[in-house]
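Sample entry was shown:
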Amino acid sequence: MGIIQKINDVMDFKEQFVDKLNVVFGDWALFVYDRPYKIIVCSLLLSLPPAIGFVPPIAKWVDGADNLYSLPVSEARNDGIIHDHYFQDVISQANFIALTSEPPGQNLLTWDMLEWVRQVDDIARGNRADPTTGQIVALPANEMYYPEWFQDPSHEGLEPDKKWLRYDDMCAPDPVTGCKIQSVFEMGIDDMKLMLDEGSAPELWMFDGLVFNSLRKGFCPNFVFGDFEKKNCTRQVPTTLISQIFSPDRYTELADKPGYAESNIECIYSVKAMRFTYEIWDKPEFTARELAWEWNLYNVFQQNEYYGPLHIGAMAFRTRDDELSKSTAESDDVIFVVYTFILLVTYAAIINFNLDQYRSKALSSLCGSLSCLLGLYAGLGVPALWGTVFTPTALVCPFIVMGVGADDIFVVIGSYALAYGEDTPRDRCAVTLRGCGVSVVMTTVTNVIAFAIGTQTQYLSIKTFCIFTLFGLLFSLIYELTLFFAVVCIEAQKEEAQMACICGGGLSSDQDALDRKKRYNIFDSISTYQVVSVLVEEGVKDDSEFLMELKDPIVITEHRFQWMNKVHKWWIDFSKRGNYWHAPDVKKDDQLFSSANEALTDALPASGVALRGNARMIDREESYIKFMPRPLILDRFDLHPKLKADVYRMEPPHNVGKTWRTFFMKHYCHYLLKPWVKLLVLILFAGNLGVSFYGLTQLQQGLEMEDLSPDNSYLKQFDHMVNEYLSEVDLPVEMFYVGDDIPWHESRVIETLRRFVNVVNDDPGNFLLNDPLTRMADDAALKPSLMSNNKTEFNRALQRAISDPDSAYKQFELDFVWKGETMMTFRQQLLPMGTTGSQERAGWMLQLRAYEEEFRQLPITNTTYPLDPHFYNYLLVFYESDITIQKSVISSLTTASMALLVVTLMLIPDLSSGLVVIIIMFLIDVAVIGYMSFWDVPLNMISMVILVISIGFAVDYSAHLCYAFVNAVGPSRDVRVAEAMVLVGTPLFHGAMSNFLGIVMLGFSTSYILRIFFKMMTLVVLLGISHGLILLPVVLGTWGAMAQAVPVSSNTLHAVNDEPVIKVRRKIDPESLEVRETALNDEIQIEHRIEPIDLSPKDNTPIPLRR
C-alpha cells in the first residue's frame, strides 16, 4: 500500500500541477484582454534588442566543410595535428584535374590526344593562356603573393625578379622533378617517345605495378589513369633503370646493345581517363597566394569544360568549401524564406477566413504568422549577441520556426471557436487559453527539449542550427502569447460588438438558442469538453449506425439517498467492463428511471450547479480503493434534450473551423471507427512497421563529400568523372610513426616495421603501402649498414641514400624527419582501394586502426618492438564522423525520448495515455528511419539531428489527441475519440499542413543540405500525421483508458479548476415539476461558508426537469 499511496500522491500532484497551469493561463488571458494594445506595443518593443545581434562586428559567419561537418575533437584530427608538427616544412595541398574524351570512351594514350592533354597541362601551369578569356593561371608578383621576395633584406628597393607567379613558382617541392605533380608527362611519356620505334603508338611500362620515369621516380598508374588496358610484353629497358627495380635474375643485359637489358613487363597501351595532381605549399605566409591560385585554376577550367576533344573537370583544394558556402548563400535559397512566409500567411488566412466578418480570424492568422516571424528574428539575434556564429545550416531555421509556430495558431483559434458559449468575450478568451495553453506549451517544450539535446552535438553546423531554432521557438511562443493573443482578444471584443465590416452581415447565430442560453445559463454547467460531447451527440443522432447510447453516470455519496448504493455498485461493475455503458434500471419510490443520471437529474436541477471537467481531490482513504491510472471524470449532467439542441444550435453557422469539425465528426470518424476499418488500419500499420524495419537494414551511413556540392556546381562533373573512371584506388593516405626515442637502427625495429607493412599490404582494403625504409633495407648495397644495429652507421647510410642525386631513393628525401643527424620518424604513402561510400571507408579506417593497436601492444623482445603508427588524410576527419554516427544517434534519441517521456507524463493526466504517446512516438521514429533508405537519405550528422527533432514533432501529433481523449466525457471509447477529433483534429491537420508548407520550398533548393532537411521533415510530417490521425484514434478507440469509479466518503460532489467543493444539505423534492424562486433558496456549504444558490431562470420560467 505504501508504494501505491506514493504513486497516487505523484498522480495527484501531477493533476494539481496541470490544474494550476490552466489557472495561470486563464489569468494571463484576462491580463492580456484588459490591456491588449499595451501588450502589443510591449511585444514590439521586445523585438528591438535582438537587432544588435545582426550588426556585422557581432554577427560572425563560419563556413567550410572541415569546420561544419567534422568533429572538432577526434583521433583523426589529432593525427592531423601530429602530422603537421612533424612535417610542417613539407605540408602541401593537392589540386586535381580529370580528363576524358568527348564523346567518352576514346583512348587518350595517342600522340594526337596527348597534344591536347599537354595544352591542358600548360594552361594549369600558367604557360598557356585560357582560350576562352585570354587569362592565364598566374598571380602578380606583388607583396601579397610574393612575400619571400619582399621580406628578404637583400632585395630592398629592387623590383621582383619576375612579373607573374606561375605554378612552378609556388608548387610544393619535389626532390626529383622540382614540383610535386602526378601526370602522364611526369610518368615519362616524352622519354618513352624517344625509346620507342618511330611510328609506334605511345605506351608506358609497368614494373611490378608501378611506372617509373627516367629519373627512377615511381608512379601508381591505377591512381593516375582510369579504365586503362595493359598487356604482357618484352621490352628493352635502360639498365640504369631496371637494375634499381628488378633483381638481376629478372632481366637479361643485351650484349649487342650496351646499357640496355631485356625483361618481361607489362605495357599500358590504352587509357580512357587521366587525373593530374598539382600540389602547392600549404604555409601560413602563403595562404593568400594559395587561395588566389586555386580560385584561378578552378575558374579557368569551369569556363573550359570542353576543350577540343577533351572533357575537363577540376577541383581545387578549397573548391568544395567555396561551393558549399555558395550553395547555402544563393539568392534563390534566401528568397525561399520569403516564399515560405507568404505561403503560411496565405494558408492560415484562407483556413480561418469566412464571409461572416464578425467571426473571421484572417487578421488573427496574419498576426500569428507575424508572431512566428518576430520569434524567428529574435531567435537569430539573441544567440548572436551571445557569440553564436552563423553557419549555412542556420538558413533552415526560418522554415522550421514558421512551420511549427503556425501549428499553435490553429490550436488557439480552434479553442477560441469552441468557446462560443461564454457570456462575455473576456470569459471566452480566458476559457480559450485555459483550454489550449497546456497543449501549446507542452508541444513547444517537447520541441525545445529535442533541439536542446541537438545542441549537445559536437558538429558546429548542427549545434548552431539547433541553438537558433530553439530560441526561435521560445520567442515564437512568447510572441504568440502576447502579440497574437492580444489581437485575438481585440477581435473577440469586435465580434461581441458586431462591428461593421466590408462584407456586412448581421447576427449569424440562432437567436432563439442564444436567448435560452442567457435565461438558463447553460454554459455555466458544462465545460468545453462537455460542449464537444454534446456537439458529437447531437451531430450524429441521425446516424443510427454510428450513434452510441449516451447515458452518463454521476458519482455522489452512498449515504444520502437509498438508491445511491446501487449507483455506486453499478459504477464499480462498469469499470471492470469494456467500452460501452450499460446502465441498469434504478428504482426509487416506485418510479422507474432509465438511468442513474435521470434519477440524479430528478433529484437535482440540471442547470443550477456549476460542475466542470475532471473530478479532483478524490478521497482515497478507503481500504478497498486501488490505484487508478487516471482520476475520476465527473461527467456532464444529462441535459434536457431541448437544452442539448440549444447547445448544438448555438454554435454560429460560420464559426471558424465548424466545417472541418463537422467533417471529422460525421464522415472521418464515422468510417475510421468501424470495427473492420480498425482492423484494416492495424494490419496496414503493422505492415508499415515491417517495411520500416526492413528499411533499417538497408540504411546507409555517412556523409559523402561530393553530395555537399550544389546540383549546378562544376564539381559535379569532376565527381562524376572520378566515380566513373578513376575510382579503382582512393586518395593517398600518409602513414607515420610517433615517438622521439624509437631505435630505428635496430634490426628488430626494421623487422617489426616489415611485419606491419606486410599486414597492411595483405589487407584487401589496401592497394599499396609504399615503404621507403624497408625497400632500402632490402637493397643489397644498403642492407649491411641499415641492419648493422649501429646507430651512427645507420643514420649516415640512410642520409646518403636519400640525398644523393643519383640515388633511386632521392624521391623520399622529404619524407624523413631528422633531429640533427638522427632520424626521428618518416612517412609512408598508402593507397587504399576504391570504396563505394563513406560507410565502407569508415570500416576501412577501423580495420587500419585495429592493425595499429595490435602493433602498439607488441612486447619488447629480441625480434619485436612496439610501434606507434598513425595515418592522416584530410578526408579522415569526415570518416571519423561516420564511425561515431550510429552511437550518437542512439544516445541522442534515447536522451530525447526519456526527457520527453517525463514532460509528457507530467502534462497528460492519465499514465496509460502518456505511455501511448511514447509508443506512437517510437513508431513514428522507426518509420522515419526506415523510410530514409527508400528516399536515398543516409544516416549522417544532418539527418541525425532531424531524427532527434522528429521526436518533438511526434509528440505534437499524438499528445494533443491523447490529452483531448483523456478529458473527453463521452460514454464509450469511440465516442471519446470522436469528441477528441472534433476538438483537436482540425488544428492537428492544419498544423501538419503548415509544417509541410514551412519546408516545401526547401525541396526546390540546389543545396544538398537543404534538400536533406526537406526529405527528412516531409517524412516526419507525413508519417507523424498519419500515425496521429489514423493509427492513434484506432488505438484509443480500442484500448484507450476509460474513467474508473472511485467511491467517496461523504455526501460530496467534486469540481475542478479550483471550483469550490459543494455539499448538498437538503434534498430537493423530485415531485416538484415547477421550481419557483421562493422555493430555491437551497443552502449549500462552499468552503465552510453558508450561502444560498439561485437555481431559478431569469424570467421565472419553470426549468423543464427530465423524469
Summary: DSSP finds 35 helices and 27 strands in the chain. The radius of gyration is 40 Å. Residues 590 and 628 are 36 Å apart (CA to CA). Confidence is low (pLDDT under 50) at residues 500-514, 516-525, 547-638, 1044-1107.
